[in-house]
Fold this sequence. Notes:
Strand order of the largest sheet: 1-2-4-7-9-12
Low-confidence stretches: none
CATH class: Alpha Beta
Number of helices: 10
Distance between the termini: 21 Å
Mean pLDDT: 96
Number of domains: 1
Shape: globular
Order of helices and strands: EEEHEEEHHEEHEEHHEHEHHH
Radius of gyration: 17 Å
Oligomer: single chain
CATH topology: 2-enoyl-CoA Hydratase, Chain A, domain 1
Amino acid sequence: MSTITFEVDDSVGILALDNGPKNPITSEMVHEITDMLNDVRSSSDIRGLVMASRGERFFSIGLDLPQLIDLERDDFAAFFNSFNRLCIDLYSLPVPTIAAVNGHAIAGGCILALCCDQRYASNGRLLMGLNEVKLGVPLPYPTDRMLHQLVGARNAYEIAASGDFYGPEPLLKMGFVDKIIDPELLMEKAVSRARELGACPGGGLSKIKEYRVRPVVEDIWTELEASEAYFVERWYSDEVRKQLRDAISKF
């Protein structure tokens, strides 16, 4: 069974995470989103993309820890590799991308939203954050670089070092989200914005995006292999295994 849905609404692709109430990110979801992004990249008809969730409480709870905890090291390394490359693909997609965040976006779920060009958040009960440090691992290096570009060094350090979750107003103040919107209008506004940006004539907008993301992506590639090796090493340390199992008990 698929973990996402995808439809096109008048030149705007709408990707909805659809993996149960909490939308955990599995290896299947990573591969399905990657394939979908490849289709968007090669399509001349899709001029914008909205990433959303079919659930009401969670955009995504993050990586599927119960699925990942017992993987052999090489299998987890392959998953982590594919997740990071998905993030780079989404971040550098040449069409405008809007995350319509209608529920909690935690850890890996927050990362997916971060990879989009803009984030529209519901003004309901919603928390977003990157709590990796509380599990004993650093942010994935692509995430760290994208976060610094988005919110600046001071806010990026606070978000990453605290591991805290934030509501809509603090997220807006830090520049992590672009707008706070009533839940019933969230998708309409996100799709409208993606369509508006995608309608810009010629290739000007895609080149503007390329200028913005290219230095970050180039930086990521210089450190990606070493940073992934360090993350995997930490993931299999005794300290982190204990934290992961405690987290799974609340998953």
